């Protein structure tokens, strides 16, 4: 299977990311996402400046303000979020986003998948390669 649809590739056992006709990464979707890095956490607060300072002072996390939300990255957002509720930050909303295959593609190629789809000069894509069971090996 060759696809530019990351949601299709995400269901495969193993994928290869290609850039200019060369395989630049190959592994399971989960393993590739883990290589990309941090979960993105967005919190809505009543005092963003105080939240930024507390994250820096108490957790050594550099956060930014994006569209009225405090944004930062941590290795395991779902485990980190409960720690926020034990601080003096008044939290109104929280969301955690895991890295996606789009993030993986960007990390390994320097381009978005949309750039790859529209580029006629470059041979980029994502290929699915079945695992041993799909090949019928035992």
Describe the structure.
The structure is a single chain. The protein is of the alpha+beta class and 138 residues long. It has helices at residues 6-9, 29-36, 48-59, 77-84, 101-109, 113-118, 132-135; strands at residues 2-3, 15-19, 22-27, 39-45, 64-66, 69-74, 91-97, 125-128. The chain contains 7 helices and 8 strands; from the N terminus they run E-H-E-E-H-E-H-E-E-H-E-H-H-E-H. The longest helix has 12 residues, at 48-59. The strands form 2 sheets. Strands 1-8-2-3 form a 4-stranded antiparallel sheet. It is elongated, with a radius of gyration of 19 Å.
- Percent of residues in β-strands: 25-35%
- Oligomeric state of the chains present here: single chain
Largest sheet: 4 strands, antiparallel
Order of helices and strands: EHEEHEHEEHEHHEH
Physical arrangement of strands within the biggest beta sheet: 1-8-2-3
Q: Average pLDDT, to the nearest integer?
A: 82
Q: How far apart lie the N and C ends? A: 22 Å
Shape: elongated
Counted by DSSP, the helix tally is 7
- Indicate the structural class: alpha+beta
Give the radius of gyration. 19 Å
Q: Which residues sit in consecutive blocks of at least 5 with pLDDT less than 50?
A: 120-124, 129-138
Q: What's the total count of β strands?
A: 8
> Which percent range fits the helix content?
25-40%
Question: Main traits of this protein?
Answer:
alpha+beta; 8 strands; 4-stranded antiparallel β-sheet; 138 residues
Topology of helices and strands:
Layout: E1 2-3, H1 6-9, E2 15-19, E3 22-27, H2 29-36, E4 39-45, H3 48-59, E5 64-66, E6 69-74, H4 77-84, E7 91-97, H5 101-109, H6 113-118, E8 125-128, H7 132-135
Antiparallel strand pairs: 1-8, 2-3, 2-8, 4-6, 4-7, 5-6
Helix pairs in contact: 2-5
């Amino acid at each position: 299977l060759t696809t530019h649809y990351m949601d299709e590739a995400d269901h495969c056992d193993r994928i290869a990311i290609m850039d200019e006709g060369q395989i630049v990464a190959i592994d399971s979707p989960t393993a590739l996402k883990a290589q990309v890095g941090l979960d993105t956490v967005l919190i809505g607060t009543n005092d963003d400046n105080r939240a930024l300072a507390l994250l820096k002072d108490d957790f050594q996390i550099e956060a930014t303000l994006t569209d009225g939300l405090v944004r930062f990255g941590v290795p395991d957002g779902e485990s980190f979020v409960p720690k926020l509720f034990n601080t003096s930050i008044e939290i109104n909303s929280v969301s955690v986003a895991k890295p996606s295959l789009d993030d993986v593609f960007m990390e390994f190629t320097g381009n978005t998948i949309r750039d790859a789809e529209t580029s006629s000069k470059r041979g980029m894509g994502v290929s699915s390669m079945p695992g041993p069971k799909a090949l019928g090996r035992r």
